[in-house]
Amino acid sequence: MKTFFKIFIPIALLVFVFVGTSVKPATAFKNYSNMEMVPAGEFWMGSAPEETKGFKEKYGNREPYKSYPFEKEQPKRKVFLKAFLIDRHEVTNREYLEFVAATGHKPPVNWEGGSPSSEQLDHPALFISQPEAAAYARWAGKRLPTEEEWEKAARGPDGLIFPWGNAFDPFKAATAESDLAFISGALCAIHSGNRVEIAPGDVSPYGVHDMAGNVREWTSSASQESPSLVVIKGGSWVDLSVNARAAHREYVPRDGTSHLIGFRCVVDADEASSH
Fold this sequence. Notes:
20% of the residues lie in helices and 17% in strands. The protein contains six helices and eleven strands. Strand 1 (2-5) and strand 2 form a beta hairpin.
């Protein structure tokens, strides 16, 4: 069954396919070497009215953004989080293939013949629902980030609008307004996204890559009004700069999948230190 769900992208509607999530009991060898530390402490979350004013004036009259609730990002407030580790980049097809091989989990629909091509290995794992992403995370000894954790990892303690600073730079991230070199892979293979870390400037203060562009990402945070909808964060290669802001959020069905949504994982720092 297919469900069409509009989530503020300028050129397309996302196609969601509902899938099963059962896996064989198996656990990966816990490896936290490809993760970055986000220390305990406060950070600025959300947006101040003056930060969204320009984006609302520029994009608010465009059809995909007319109903986007910029005010829901307010107020900009301080939030305390304990220390955690977060994946340096989105989970790749190479990494997800290990999970599929170990558990017998259903592979993503964009893997022809049940496995990714050699060209896809270092691209984000896509067409994966939020429960499937959570299943991978459990298998890997991790979990999905909360919206707060994702946002802190993306913008640092000082509340930067973008991972690198407060002004959008098309030469920093893989978005629709970016240098063509950053999105050529996705344009040539629309169901694969771009290779992770292809945009060297899309790096947060904590050394985390691809949080403004490439593909959007699942979190574990659900809508209070509708628990079947969960928060996704980050922009993608088809999104304008308004989506690349760390405070930007959208809600999508947790059981849906898309060629524009991937994920990354986190683990509590104290748990990681015990292994």
